[in-house]
Write a structure and sequence with these properties.
Helix content: 10-25%
Strand content: 25-35%
Order of helices and strands: EEHEEEEEHEEEEHEEEE
Number of helices: 3
Oligomer: single chain
């Protein structure tokens, strides 16, 4: 059975961007497992309302800080919730890797295609996946590039991240189709996801190699 995952950052006992995680989780369930009326079948084939409230399932305490909460779910709902301390993986260089047929629109536990591309990074720390001539994401994070005035993020990411959506809603990011040949018009690149705060991981654009 196919399973999906939400990775939620916990700081000060609070779940970051929880409404965006709930939105993405419920959209995934509706898209993949709902009937024509938008209801989900349960294990005994009863139909239930598709809306999940993650807050009802998390066990948080005020001392939880820099914690990675991993929620695994599928057709029958949430199957596993784990908590672990988060360690940021250093990234100092990025290699462009092309894959026109990769599809990761839903955050699946099956990452074999991404892991295969990550194995092509050579001596670089991570990759940027180029799909059909356009930049998308790294192996674990959305990206944004600074043109001297605004931060622009690929219009068609591999995965629509929750922090990305939050930054777009606040006007911090603008969407743009970005090709590899356009990299020279930017000065810096930022990597961010649910666990990596905006501005924590920034590299000069010269750190991106072909």
């Amino acid at each position: 059975m196919c399973h999906f995952v939400e990775t939620i950052r916990i700081d000060g006992g609070q779940a970051t961007n929880l409404c965006y995680h709930e939105k993405r989780m419920n959209e995934t369930l509706r898209r993949l497992f709902s009937d024509a009326d938008g209801r989900r079948p349960t294990a005994d084939n009863r139909l239930t309302d598709p809306r999940y409230s993650l807050a009802d399932h998390l066990c948080l305490s005020p001392d939880m800080d820099n914690i990675k909460c991993r929620v695994v779910y599928g057709k029958d709902g949430i199957s596993e919730i784990t908590y672990s301390e988060y360690t940021l993986r250093p990234v100092r260089s990025l290699r462009l890797v092309c894959s026109d047929d990769i599809d990761y629109a839903c955050k699946s536990t099956d990452r074999k295609a991404i892991d295969r591309l990550f194995g092509m990074r050579g001596i670089s720390d991570d990759i940027i996946i180029v799909r059909r001539g356009l930049l998308t994401d790294t192996s674990i994070a959305n990206i944004a590039l600074f043109d001297g005035t605004v931060w622009q993020t690929p219009r068609l990411p591999l995965l629509g991240g929750t922090r990305r959506e939050s930054l777009l809603d606040r006007g911090i990011l603008q969407e743009k189709d970005i090709t590899p040949d356009m990299l020279g018009s930017f000065s810096h690149i930022r990597l961010f996801n649910a666990m990596i705060d905006w501005g924590v991981q920034e590299l000069p654009v010269e750190a991106v190699v072909r």
